[in-house]
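Field reference: sequence -> structure
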Amino acid sequence: MTNEEKKDYLNLKVAYQSVPFISELEKRGKYISMTPKTLFKYRKFDEFALDMLENDYVYMTPAGLLDDPYDCLTDACMDDIFESDHKTLTKGIMEYLVDIVLAHSHSKEIDKAGVLKLIYECMVDGAVDKEMLSIRLGDFGSLTSEQKALFFNVMINFQNTTGSDESLKGLYKRFLSAKERVGICSLTTKRDNKPMWSLYAHSYEGYCIEYEIPMQKDIVANLCPVIYSKDIDNNIVKATVKFAVETIIRFASDGKTKTSMGCFTELLCTKDEDWKYQDEWRIIGTAKSKAKGLKVKNVYLGFNVTKENETAMIECARRKGFGVYRMQKPNGSQKISYIEVKE
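Structure field:
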């Protein structure tokens, strides 16, 4: 999946977790087809190795303990949003608001400076006057009627929803407090990735679990693809603003306009391009909890696995009903291959 496809997937996920519009339900088949049927997890043999398999759970690692110390970092600064009167939006955030709307306008002819000037001229005591905005937009020649309606809906509804810095603070503080409790289980689409066999499976002494991904709500609703990018914007306040605006646009268009409502999830699911080789998917849940619902299909043992660990895994597989395969030692070929291990 490309980054754009992943973002589209996250947007649809948010829509389905609320009440989807008919236009969004029509995309359900695409959403389901983009959900992996199987995913893999590399592990070393430790005190939890067999316990996880015997008791059918995956551990939700606290976000602050992931392998990349830059992962899930967020930045927040309310000074960038409101002026000292706690009501008036700064010029920077006003431009950001307009940019979000313009991104949905599909036109390069819109006079951005003119739109900003119009909005500022409609402000009374730090807030946009509804009647003035309606009149001024009606006289603004470079916008279509649909674009005028979109700008009007966004400005008035955003103002009503987040009328002061205190209301925005409440939104992003709830997200920050949730992030402190967030746990992540990292999975991958790749079974034969040599760097991951080396790093996460104890230099081929460990194993790789193949999980079947059920289409049950408590799993799929929390399963997200990781986006890889060199340009990572981790400003949680801007994400709050964007989520509010994109939600308004979604409702104003009855779900027909493609929006970016997955921007909050993107904060937890965006990594530097250096990690792209992992092709990671994440189950997001409560930190330090044991998430259930995944079914083990097969386990693949590294070629350096000890006889003791191999025997223990075979016995576990017999009780639980999954297959066991052992990686063959490198013999000149660059391709990883496995043979089934039987009793």
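Note: Residues 83-163 form one domain.
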